[in-house]
Amino acid sequence: MQPFRFAHLSDPHLPLAPDRPRGLEWLSKRTLSYQSWQRKRRHAHTPAMLAAIVADIRSQGVDHWAVTGDIANISLPGEFRRGAEWLRSIGPAAGVSYVPGNHDAMVHVPFDQGLGLWAGYMTGDGAKAVSFPYLRQRGPVAFIGANSGVPTAPLLAQGHLGAEQIERLGDTLSDTGRRGLFRVLMVHHPVADGVVSNRKGMTDRKALRALLARTGAEMLLHGHAHHADLSMIKGPLGPIPSLTAPSASAIGYRHDMPARWHLVTVDTDGPDWHVQVEVRGVERRDAPVTALGGWSLRLPGTGVG
Ligand SMILES: [Fe+2]
Asked: Does residue 305 lie within any of the structural domains?
């Protein structure tokens, strides 16, 4: 098997300007978030940093891009339009898989003016419409995208999958496991406890962990925390690495972690998977994007050979 290489990046948070809420758009959770963006977030994320991360990913020649949410900031229609342009700028829909974050679902937005503009990047193989979880097989890897982005009350940034989505996820994970694929589950909110506060946590992460303990998965990818984390989640054959990437546009403002992405290489030479994760990013603003570290994992195969 040829090693399969993919990029994991998250939380690009494209600039909100020139948009601002208008008219009735102020009467929503957007108001507080707009004020927070004006106060802090617009200083914390820059297009230049995001462009440097994207250029570095391109220079590595990856086979696929996995983006775990939060293109937007306060879910204004203009953000979805510019988000669609950004997605097209990084690659065709077949080569980029996206799952929504809480900032892409801050308030209810009609599908055709919101997430629908990114539909091609969230549509499963052979599917005609967006439905979560989706499944996209690329080489030996099954990219499985779940949607934890739901509108929440002001000051909360929680996520939720819901019982139905978790049930469908169980079918998809079991099926792709039987087929011996390397299952990568993408979900914006981290699954492990303690990576983010409860105010920001996925409310049904315990149910998802119970499912994963039965079905397994080879790797979990998240964003949301805006800092890096590697946790281990219980699987049927051993721990499942659960990887959280910081924001790909963060300059390291105040206590923020500056931008990083993960270069993941999946290989096998028999019964086991060999996985290498190279962490690439910047040490500080204005520094070049370089390798910052990494690790290798040997994971039990799901029928590969
Ligand atoms: Fe975010």
From this structure: no
Question: Separation of 14 CA from ligand 1 center, angstroms?
Answer: 10
pTM recorded for the entire structure: 0.94
Tally the domains of the chain. 1
Compute, in angstroms, the gap from residue 111 CA to the centroid of ligand 1. 21
Phi-psi region for residue 149, left (φ > 0), alpha (ψ -120 to 50) or beta?
beta
Do residues 8 and 63 make contact, with C-beta atoms less than 8 angstroms apart? no
240, 216 contact by CB (below 8 A): yes
Chain CA centroid to CA 180, Å: 23
Looking at 90-99, 134-143, 157-166, 296-305, which range is the least confident one? 296-305
What CATH number does residue 223 fall under? 3.60.21.10
Q: Answer whether residue 74 shows pLDDT above 90.
A: no
Domain of 45 in residue numbering reads as: 4-16+23-269+279-300
Ligand 1 centre and the CA of 180: distance in Å?
A: 33
| Cα–Cα distance for residue pair 244/116, rounded to 1 Å | 26
Q: 235 vs 6, 211, 265, 269, CA distance in Å?
A: 23, 9, 21, 22
pLDDT averaged over the chain?
92
Ligand 1 centroid to Cα of residue 200, in Å, is 10
Is position 274 within any domain? no
- What's the gap in Å between 93 CA and the centre of ligand 1? 22
Asked if residue 183 is part of any domain, the answer here is: yes
Handedness of CA 176, 181, 186, 190 (dihedral sign): positive
Cα–Cα dist 145/147, whole Å:
7
